[in-house]
Design goal:
The structure holds 2 protein chains of 2 kinds.
Chain A (H helix, E strand, L loop, with lengths): L3 E7 L2 E7 L5 H8 L18 E4 L2 E4 L12 E3 L12 H8 L9 H14 L5 H7 L11 H16 L6
Parallel strand pairs in A: 1-5
Antiparallel strand pairs in A: 1-2, 3-4, 3-5
Chain B lengths: L3 E3 L4 H8 L4 E4 L5 H6 L7 E4 L8 E3 L3 E5 L16 H5 L4 H4 L4 H4 L9 H7 L3 E6 L2 E6 H7 L6 E8 L6 E7 L7 E11 L5 E9 L6 E2 L1 H7 L6 H14 L10 H17 L2
Parallel strand pairs in B: 1-3, 2-3
Antiparallel strand pairs in B: 4-5, 5-8, 6-7, 6-8, 9-10, 10-11, 11-12
Helix pairs in contact in B: 8-9, 9-10
Classes of the chains: A alpha+beta, B alpha+beta.
Amino acid sequence: MRSSFVSFTLNGEEKELLIAPGQRLVDVLREQCGAMGTRNGCGQGGCGACTVHVDAVPMLSCLVLAELAEGCDILTIEGAARDRTLHALQEAFVAEAATQCGFCTAGMIMAAKALLDRDPAPQREAVVEALSGNVCRCTGYEPIIAAVLAAAAMLARLPAAAA
Amino acid sequence: MAFAVHRPESVPAVIAALAGPGRVAVSGGTLVIRDINEGRSFPNAIVSLRRAGLSGVVRNAETIDIGAATPIADLARPELAFLDGVLRGFASPTLRNMASLGGNLFAPRPYGDSGVALLALDASLGIAGPHGARRMPLLEFYAAGIAADEIVTGLRFALPAPGTWRWLKATRRALNSASVLAIAAVVETDSAGTVAAARIALGGVDAHPVRSPAAEAALCGRVLDAAAASHAGEEAAAAHPCFADAYASAWYRRRVLPVHMRRALLGI
């Protein structure tokens, strides 16, 4: 079995990578693209630590084969910040102490970003549901929920272009 | 571990790619890729269904056709609003973006609850294989399965009449939890409130989702009230083996089935 070239957009940048057959997207992002923010957690789809956006839809990159990402637009935590300015969710996670060991944080933020992209002013219940596939063993979740709600409030005060 | 990844763009190309040992059809990957990650599956090749034209929902005059590779999240649409509880009870929102309705038919217990809903809807499957296409009742699929060189291409069911649909998934947590029990039913009552016809399907009681003739027989001809609903649950608890897993013991599932049957059928 031979490796093949796979092209996709990663955080706005065109990539063309030589991919060994059967490689997972999470491993390609971390080991070939240097995008180490995406974590390889359970490998079962149960923890959400590997959540990235594929064509603006949050997915679990431990269950995505890199060869099937051909032509896709992929956004990882490294693409959430812009021009070295943290995304409101990142700011809020810091401010609300919503990150402790940090292993789940990137996945949490990518899942939360998908929610805020769709629903900029979510109720608490919507935040809880949106994060129900992301496991945190440190915080007890409350600071994370508070951070997402704070980020929504922060984004509401910003001009639309900065969101 | 290395395996080839095929991305055929038509159903005949999928069938051709599946010919040979160790080939596995994959749509969302939430079952097959997980098993590979866990070291439980060692395919020679993965055949992705994602570009084979098997996604989408088509509303016909009296039925709905759903492509087998349609992600669960894509079923959130007005004509399928009655399935809202089924969708929201399905794993996490992120997983719902990946997992497909056809793939969920292959989920081992206690997963695969969308099959419970589809059994109550009396769904049929489109099957494609080297010898052509055929249709198969979902009941028969659970009893006999399909051959390794065949795939499920789609699901078809008639929309239930307004007010006849019932759904309940009993879980240990409110969100993202496998079921202790899943109950789906289409119950038709006459003007006096007497049950004229009922299709009741259960998850959590057997190796795969099943219809419950015992519950259906217990309900038909009776006025749909708490006593009748609980009685149907008792008959089901006596008729199905139930099973024990990390979520509940077999005893617990049998014990709470009448209660959840009442809640499913009456909402109380």
